[in-house]
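Private note to self, pasted from the team thread so I don't lose it. Backbone tokens:
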């Protein structure tokens, strides 16, 4: 009987410690966001000229917002940069769109690369490789197709690129949009993702997401160049890991990355979250054990039970207070990331937040049960450690 009692108390203490740690992360991330995000960009003349930037844009297909998203890169307020557009296939409709923008802004140094170069299984790396080899500036900005830039965003990122810094990355966020899928997306990236991203950055943990990432080229060459990461799907994580291991530092920019996809759906976002979860599990297997404890409902349930066992607290009131305070904390986090009141109502936030929190354990369970990763038209299998192998399409008879 005594071993069983000790086991129960051991689990209860574990849940209480996890609960306390998560609330410390809440406080830390929210405080850090107030200091870190949306700082005023310094527009005074620099002591030394800013380094030139080669902006690599891997493209596949088009969506309703792609033209306006790409146009923001032609109007950046930065003295020296070039745009390098990367397309796999000459018949891709993105080719015509890029050509029209290049004609509209002939004063901007822009080039189009078609065909890619196979250096691994990662299609994004393969797509960008010719542009990487042709880039003429010491700083590289890897920017996904769905990113929309403010005119001073690149300047903000470069100002964070100190002498000992090799990577400046933007925290993922989203533009305002209509519909429940857009609310769900904004709530996820403005609360759960923002909290863990800012908390990890504050603690010095690798949280690099490469959707908008400024990289010092000499540091990337030290670890083998872009091609060295073609065997990974999560090339951003391993790139940052390799660069930091050489003594370089990473910084998060003041302005979040504004994702602005023109095609939003709940299913598409959940498929994306499942893919990210599968990548995390393959890279860091302990994710499967610890990640549920970072979610409001599983952690709240465990902590409520533990509080009852250890302190005689009523589990249901404890759980309800936990959820309410978590909800209010997330509303404050979203306001901080948004830099003001979000464009969604409190009712929309409540619905989106409830949906996001209820779906989080389901998304993680689905990632665990089906480790195969689908990315556009391709499928992959991951080894422990993160190396990827492309799966051949199954023949249909």
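Design output:
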């Amino acid at each position: 009987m005594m071993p069983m009692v000790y086991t129960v108390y051991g689990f209860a203490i574990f849940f209480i410690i996890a609960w306390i740690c998560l609330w410390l992360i809440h406080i830390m991330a929210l405080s850090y966001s107030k200091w870190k995000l949306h700082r005023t960009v310094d527009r005074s003349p620099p002591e030394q000229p800013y380094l030139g930037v080669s902006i690599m844009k891997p493209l596949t297909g088009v969506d309703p917002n792609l033209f306006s998203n790409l146009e923001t890169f032609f109007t950046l307020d930065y003295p020296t940069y070039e745009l390098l557009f990367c397309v796999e296939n000459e018949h891709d409709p993105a080719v015509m769109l890029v050509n029209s923008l290049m004609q509209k802004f002939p004063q901007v140094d822009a080039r189009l690369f078609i065909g890619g170069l196979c250096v691994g299984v990662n299609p994004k790396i393969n797509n960008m490789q010719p542009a990487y080899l042709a880039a003429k500036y010491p700083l590289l900005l890897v920017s996904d197709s769905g990113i929309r830039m403010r005119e001073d965003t690149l300047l903000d990122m470069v100002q964070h690129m100190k002498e000992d810094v090799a990577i400046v990355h933007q925290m993922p966020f989203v533009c305002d949009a209509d519909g429940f899928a857009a609310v769900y997306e904004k709530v996820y990236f403005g609360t759960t993702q923002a909290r863990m991203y800012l908390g990890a950055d504050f603690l010095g943990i690798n949280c690099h997401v490469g959707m908008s990432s400024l990289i010092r080229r000499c540091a990337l060459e030290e670890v083998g160049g872009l091609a060295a990461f073609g065997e990974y799907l999560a090339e951003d994580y391993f790139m940052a890991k390799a660069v930091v291991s050489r003594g370089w530092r990473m910084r998060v920019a003041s302005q979040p990355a504004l994702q602005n996809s023109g095609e939003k759906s709940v299913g598409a976002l959940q498929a994306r979250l499942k893919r990210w979860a599968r990548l995390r599990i393959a890279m860091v297997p302990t994710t499967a054990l610890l990640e549920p404890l970072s979610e409001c409902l599983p952690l709240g349930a465990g902590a409520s039970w533990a509080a009852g066992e250890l302190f005689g607290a009523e589990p249901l009131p404890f759980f309800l207070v936990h959820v309410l305070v978590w909800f209010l904390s997330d509303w404050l986090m979203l306001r901080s990331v948004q830099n003001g009141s979000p464009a969604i109502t409190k009712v929309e936030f409540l619905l989106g937040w409830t949906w996001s929190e209820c779906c989080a354990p389901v998304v993680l369970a689905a990632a665990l049960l089906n480790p195969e990763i689908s990315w556009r038209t391709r499928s992959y299998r991951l080894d422990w450690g993160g190396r990827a192998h492309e799966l051949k399409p199954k023949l249909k008879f």
